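Q: Two folds, back to back.
A: First:
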Amino acid sequence: MKMRWISVLMVGCLTTMAVMGCGASKENTKTGGEKTLTFWKASDATDDWYKQKIEEYNKENSGKYKVEMEIVASSGTFSYDDKVSAAVTSNSLPDIMMVDGPYVSTYAENGLIIPLDDYISQEDKEDLIPGSAQQNMYDGKLYAYSITESSVALYYNKDMMDAAGVEMRMPESPEDALTWAEYEDMAKALTHDGVVGTNIIMDKGEGMIYGLLPFYVSAGTGLISEDGTEAQGYYNNDAAYDAAEFLNELIQNGYANVDPIDNEFANQKAATMLSGSYQLANAKDWEFNWGVTYYPIKEKGAKAASPNGDWVFTVTSNSKEPEAAADFINYVCSKENSAENAKVNAKIPARVSVMEAAEEWSSYPNSIFKEQLLETSYARPRTPVYATLTSEFSDGLFDIFSGADIQETLDTGADAIDKEFKEVYGN
């Protein structure tokens, strides 16, 4: 394995999600036959919940398994990439590690995590929403398991629409979503007096490919070949051009800001907003009437797609007790625990059965996100050089928004991605 993979994995690995970190893990130890497992996670709203679950798990498995969790602040001078790099070189990865979903492919290709097929039941595999299953698979094997999920849809300010005399067609399903033309026309009509018609995800980082990839998928490209080895003809084809051109039109016409102000939609400086399911928890503070509808599609009959993804559980190849590690994952990702964790974390359960049983996801507006996750969720590209791809994607879009030629920018990105793959993996 070429150690250059470390830089490939880590460049841009710090996403809009919480950053996680850790110290060197302990080797599995046995005290009276008890197997000790190390588990790393980033600090977030679920910290106390995990402490409780680990306490329960350890009590139930006393004398058999014991999980020791290390929670690390979501920011700091010794960041996730530094710590993981150090852990790889010192052979001190933990038994169980949460990773951001799109990086599963990189970890798997480099032998840092193991397949879970022998430890996860077929029933539980099939219970994952389609996008989660897609995200967690690599080379035909399941390398990760999800506990929660996310999605993105189009929020709109009803009061602003009424004031502008804008009547939006109300889609009845993800496949019936507003077309790009309808979305742009609405944004145009709502842009006036210091208010932009829409807010698209412009975080200058991982959030861009997470939130904007469905435009490319609806146009006809997943940005990379199915096996994750080639960007030429996928990243820079006509479909990619169409998607980039459409997004650029929103910016160049002034319908969206390339550098939005904070809380632009909540502060009524944007009339619509492409944003995540987490906004549902913030909506109680919005001082206007609002609604949410499905993620736009290119045109009538085009493929409907929507974002998904979250941090997932993996068992590292450093673990001497993979069966025990997987036992904990099965426990913490059970149906009951998935439901609990989603409520604590203001997210969506990753299991179909749990989502179907949850009343809060059965009615509007939450049901919009449920429908998308069940019917149109599309994971970010699965490739060992994902870090390069996501960096090229966000940097390239900003170059385009700044006036760069679209095709040249896409070609440059495809070349960079393929060059990285060939140099690191020798193909």
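A: Second:
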Amino acid sequence: MNVPTFGAGWQVRADLRFPDGAGSFDLQRRVRTPFESAAPGADPLGRAMVAYHFDHYSAARARVRCSVAPDDWLHAAYLFRSAAELPELEQQALARTYGRVLDVGAGGGAHALLLVGRGLPVTALDASVGACRVLADRGLTDVRCQDLWAPLPAAETWDTVLLLMNGLGLPGTIAGLQRYLRQLRPHLAPGGQLLATSADVAYLYEDPADGSLRLPMGSTYYGEIQYQMSYQQEVGEPFPWLFLNPALLVDYAAEAGYHAEILAADDSDQYLARLVPNA
């Protein structure tokens, strides 16, 4: 069974094995531990990255709690992958990247550093203070440590905006995604593009007996999932993550003023999309 991926570059798929034995989920078990009380200002994933990068602690890992799955672990090593370790969809995205680049949710800089190596100017944006320390220390000269919703300079534009490693899920909900797409539009230069990856998670709700879908009741879209991360004793705030099926992406992108094209998909229900503003 395949399991989705989410942010800061973490792939959570039962068929994938990560560096240093990072874990996988079996969502059919439908067992999870309740979320914990969070510490104000906690940055668990950032702390794991700092431990890995600055302290050379190769076993650094953050625990991940999910609203539809048992606990698992995200190894910091995954956020420091080489070009050869990137999945095919991410490699395709980087091959299509041009011009001035905004890497949203840059994490450990795996994508940004490869693009800088090609001579592209890259702005690396991440809300994690720890991640931003790592990004700067790894040689990135334009690092923005800010929340996804914090305004960007009004006159600043980019040719390519990257939302990789299921970065399309960063806004958390369908409404959040549409809001974020509208927020980004003035910051795309003429001829600009947004490259993003996501996954359709309808299969998580398949009945193994007959293959029919047993979607949860209520108004929430089935791909809106809650997560919480912790590192050692530091517990972060729960946060939403969106997994949007490609047909819905095309529709909701159009409502937000974009044309969306699905460039590629893999056998794990993940896909790469290109969004360009409508004329």
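Q: And?
A: The chain has six helices and 14 strands.
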